[in-house]
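Per your request, structure below.
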């Protein structure tokens, strides 16, 4: 655990490093991004081993979701950074002539990035890419629930960057978080985690008026229309739900299927679960385990007194819960209100399109919404009437992979957005500058204000 003295040193040294202007040039930022990519490449095996030890992540899932997407993000940022950094010329109203107007992106200063445990490498490093690109100094706080990955991150950062530029602090979030946020005036805080902790972060940040980006969660519906390719829908829902054992902030939280297709869809879901994880998923090498005993006990508790259609097997010693489908869940059951964050999929039904919105709004502002349909009218209706952070049509999870799409929540699922250029914007201040020529000085605005001047002023503004 990082000591209070080390935390103080980390913050002060970064303030000094930033104030010296070290991070501001295009060349410096590009060099750091390339160093980061190289460091990840060198440490690939260690990262994968750490994720295996922490959560038993299959190598395919670990590489694609924790490493591969970062390579894509870094490459995209390197290719576009020069254009993002350029001052943006804006149109100037006639009343301000002879003047020119520009917006200058500039770094914020020293920022704090707090990562979660479910994708402990990717969800800490992805915002770091934006912070580097925007020219900031960074303090990273990885999750202490994934200790092996935390150790790899700490060593990778120490070996790659000047500690006055980027460094890692470690320890229990409940202890280290307040030490960081309440004591030090960071220029921005980027937090990924639960809504309850997000509220605490925001409250603590208010002391220094520190702006925050909160990437939180919610209950993301997978809505399956009657007019749908049921085979493809089932396959993609099973993949999206049980990827990382459902420990994904945008995993489908429940299935909302047209009554006429329910039985067929459930049958196809079970077929795909068997195909992906075998007849004995508890022995599968392709299924991620639950992160810790506490989370395992919460998920195991959800399975009491519910109608399990398929799955439901548990192994406490290995923290395994097999892919599970449940039906006829009582309205007041936590499965319909809590963010499950595990491999349990409740099934709900609807008969009319108009029934969907009230059901989804029982847990308003999901982080994602997944629509499975071949009906463009149905698709448009859902997109226009459900407030969500983002989502997919006929797919799940993959909207996160496109660096051209902003990712973030709305309402209780978060505030702010990132990925690609949007990450650069999160960690930048856009400074407005108007420059006026001294060759001409129009006297209209200066006192004394005559009736003639008033008439001319009205002509300009009207």
């Amino acid at each position: 655990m990082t000591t209070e003295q080390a935390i103080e040193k980390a913050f002060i040294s970064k303030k000094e490093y930033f104030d010296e202007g070290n991070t501001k040039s295009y060349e410096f930022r590009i060099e750091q991004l390339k160093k980061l990519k190289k460091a990840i490449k060198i440490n690939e095996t260690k990262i994968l081993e750490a994720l295996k030890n922490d959560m038993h992540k299959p190598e395919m899932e670990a590489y694609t979701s924790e490493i591969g997407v970062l390579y894509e993000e870094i490459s995209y940022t390197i290719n576009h950074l020069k254009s993002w950094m350029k001052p943006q010329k804006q149109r100037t109203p006639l009343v301000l002539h002879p003047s020119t107007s520009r917006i200058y992106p500039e770094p914020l200063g020293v920022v704090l990035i707090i990562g979660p445990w479910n994708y402990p490498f990717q969800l800490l490093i992805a915002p770091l890419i934006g912070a580097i690109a925007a020219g900031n100094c960074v303090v990273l706080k990885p999750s202490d629930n994934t200790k092996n990955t935390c150790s790899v991150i700490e060593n990778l950062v120490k070996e790659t960057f000047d500690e006055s530029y980027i460094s890692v602090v470690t320890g229990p979030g409940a202890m280290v978080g307040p030490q960081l946020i309440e004591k030090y005036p960071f220029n921005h805080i980027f937090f990924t985690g639960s809504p309850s902790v997000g509220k605490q972060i925001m409250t603590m940040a208010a002391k220094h008026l520190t702006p925050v980006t909160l990437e939180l969660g919610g209950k993301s519906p997978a809505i399956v229309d009657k007019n749908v390719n049921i085979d493809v829908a089932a396959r993609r829902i099973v993949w999206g739900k049980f990827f990382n054992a459902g420990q994904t902030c945008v995993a489908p939280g429940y299935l909302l299927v047209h009554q006429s297709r329910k039985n067929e869809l459930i049958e196809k879901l079970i077929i795909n679960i068997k195909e992906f994880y075998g007849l004995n998923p508890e022995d599968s090498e392709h299924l991620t385990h639950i992160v810790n005993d506490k989370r395992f006990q919460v998920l195991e508790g959800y399975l009491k007194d519910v109608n399990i259609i398929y799955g439901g097997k548990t192994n406490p010693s290995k923290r395994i819960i097999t892919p599970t489908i449940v039906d006829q869940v009582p309205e007041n059951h936590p499965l319909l209100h809590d963010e499950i964050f595990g491999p349990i999929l409740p099934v709900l039904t609807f008969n009319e399109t108009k029934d969907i919105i009230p059901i989804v709004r029982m847990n308003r502002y999901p982080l994602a919404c997944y629509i499975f349909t071949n009906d463009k009218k149905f698709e448009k209706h859902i997109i226009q009437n459900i407030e969500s952070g983002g989502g997919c049509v006929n797919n799940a999870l993959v909207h996160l992979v496109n660096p051209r799409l902003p990712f973030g929540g709305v309402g209780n699922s978060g505030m702010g957005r990132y990925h690609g250029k949007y990450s650069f914007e999160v960690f930048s201040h856009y400074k407005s500058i108007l420059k006026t020529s001294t060759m001409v000085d129009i006297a209209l605005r200066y006192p004394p204000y005559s009736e003639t001047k008033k008439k001319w002023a009205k002509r300009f503004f009207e």
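The first helix runs from residue 4 to 19.

Regards,
D.
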